Amino acid sequence: MASGRKSVPGRERQQRSGWDAWTFAGRTLALGGLMLALTAVAMAEPPPGSSPSLPDNPLKGRLLFESRECNSCHGLVGDKLGIGPNLGERHFSGTFLELGAALWNHVPGMSVTFEVTGLPWPQLTSGEAMELIAFLYFIDYLGRPGVAADGEAVFVSQGCSSCHSIGGGEANIGPDLAELRNFASPLYIAQQIWNHGPSMLEGMRRLDIPPPNFGEGDLADLSAFVRQKAGPGPRERMLLAPGNPNHGNDLFVSKGCSKCHGADGRGGDGGPDLRLVDLRRPAETIASTMWNHALGMRSTMQERGIGWPEFQDSELADLVAFLYFLPFSDSVGDPQRGASVFRERSCKDCHAAGGSSRLEGGVPGPELSGTTATASSASMVAAMWNHAPVMKKAILGEGRPWPELTGQDMRDLRAFLMSQTAAR
Ligand code: HEC
Ligand code: HEC
Ligand code: HEC
Ligand code: HEC
């Protein structure tokens, strides 16, 4: 059985990736250290033309967060700047357009502080809007650092200590886990447990040990405990890079997950709809969720003659990143509802779309059907953001309230404007 630990061509490149900061220090430090990870990624740009809708490295948005000076007013984790809210502690959930709507709704409040500080309103391309918002959504993926003492409790209560020692001991049914010292990140441990799952589960059944069931944070704690017990490794620690959700999407198909969970995790043949499961959880918790259902999945796989999927290198990390981003995708909106949002949220006062013309006397905005502005959700968010200062002056100048939007409004508006494009 391939362990994935010895043959790891890709891992050297990810050495000092900064992701280890995530495992060894606090999240604040991790977010700083993650800058290093970006250097490695910049060398492996995706081939031109592949333009995935999600960034290959969700941490890349952090570079924009700084170059667009969002960090002049917003802290991420721990640091307090006082001008804008701390975005790392905001726990953004919801779809891309729901986060896009949050950005839109804060335009008046934000732009006041732009005027005060004299900062220019940052212009974003659609790719940049996606990267920034995906980054904000991604922050919680990092989870919290593990606590070794709690990991020891997990090691005993989940029965690991019946079969494993760490750095010498009685239990020797399974390998001494000190061997993991160089790689003992929570996701790497999860990957090894998963790969050895079938034989471990069989051993547990024989010894009448209930299969382990991990709670939130257990894998992080376990990983901290293994590292503490195993002591420093002979070489530098080499850990997994943050996952690539696009690669994870490919793995979801190639590893057979989609056979039961359907394309995009929509459910279908024998597996639940994963979009309905709350998977926007820290990476190690997602891996735990997979493991906690391993027994149930294994029996379905056996019934259907599907082999146990194994993971090498950063494959589990990629898959987990894909699962994390499942709730981020927007469904298609309702064009009819979008037409009423367009009317009621005052867009129609200034914009024509398709057959309908703008109101007499309003500030003329561009015709919105047939624009590239709504070609994708990301271009719509970017266009609305870039034009926000002009719209703000026009709307608030007339003493009218800012037209706040929900994510559903955004989806429906886009569906409406797209349908108008199609009708021309
Ligand atoms: C000049 C200061 C300033 C800059 C620069 C700035 N913001 Fe803000 N931002 C604010 C303020 C103030 C608020 C709160 C506004 C409100 O409550 O309506 C805010 C609110 C937000 C919110 C909503 C937060 C929530 O709790 O829902 C998001 C998201 C956001 N900003 C993202 C960004 C991004 C991304 C950038 C960089 C492109 C950025 N901001 C740049 C001042 C700023
Ligand atoms: C019933 C005995 C048993 C229990 C209980 C058990 N394991 Fe294992 N474990 C094994 C055996 C046997 C292997 C080697 C399996 C193989 O070679 O396929 C193994 C392999 C592993 C590996 C891969 C090691 C490597 O060098 O790659 C890890 C990690 C691991 N176990 C962690 C755990 C953790 C964490 C727990 C508790 C949650 C646990 N195991 C509980 C028997 C057990
Ligand atoms: C043979 C069918 C099958 C395959 C293949 C399969 N699953 Fe599952 N999956 C299931 C079933 C059935 C459940 C529910 C099992 C249970 O509750 O014990 C499940 C549960 C899950 C859950 C937990 C959902 C929840 O309710 O919390 C996750 C996450 C998951 N699978 C991910 C995956 C991934 C990732 C893969 C590919 C590596 C995969 N599954 C492959 C059938 C499958
Ligand atoms: C008070 C007038 C006014 C209102 C109300 C208004 N807009 Fe605008 N809008 C403008 C103006 C003016 C521009 C051009 C801004 C510029 O050039 O920077 C614009 C630009 C845009 C663009 C960019 C178009 C492109 O082709 O790049 C989009 C998208 C947009 N608005 C959407 C909306 C939506 C959706 C609403 C309703 C929630 C709305 N606008 C409400 C005046 C308005």
Notes on the protein architecture:
There is one protein chain. The chain is an all-alpha fold and 424 residues long. It folds into 3 domains: 12-142, Cytochrome Bc1 Complex, Chain D, domain 2; 148-327, no CATH class; 335-423. Helix content is 49%, strand content 0%. The radius of gyration is 24 Å and the shape is elongated. 39% of the residues are buried. Residues 1-52 have low confidence and may be disordered. The protein binds heme C (4 copies). One heme C is lined by residues 255-257, 259-261, 270-272, 274, 277, 289-290, 293, 296-297, 300-301, 304, 306, 309, 319.
Which features characterize this protein?
binds heme C, 3 domains, mainly alpha, elongated, Cytochrome Bc1 Complex, Chain D, domain 2, 424 residues
How does the overall form come out from the CA principal axes? elongated
From the helix content, strand content and strand pairing, which structural class follows?
mainly alpha
Give the overall average pLDDT.
82
End-to-end span in angstroms?
59 Å
Report the C-alpha radius of gyration, rounded: 24 Å
Total number of strands: 0
List the ions, cofactors and other small molecules found in this model: heme C
Strand residue content: under 5%
Can you count the helices? 20
Q: What count of domains describes the coordinates?
A: 3
Unreliable stretches: 1-52
Describe the sheet with the most strands: none
Can you give the helix content as a percent range?
40-55%
What is the chain-wise order of helices and strands? Answer: HHHHHHHHHHHHHHHHHHHH
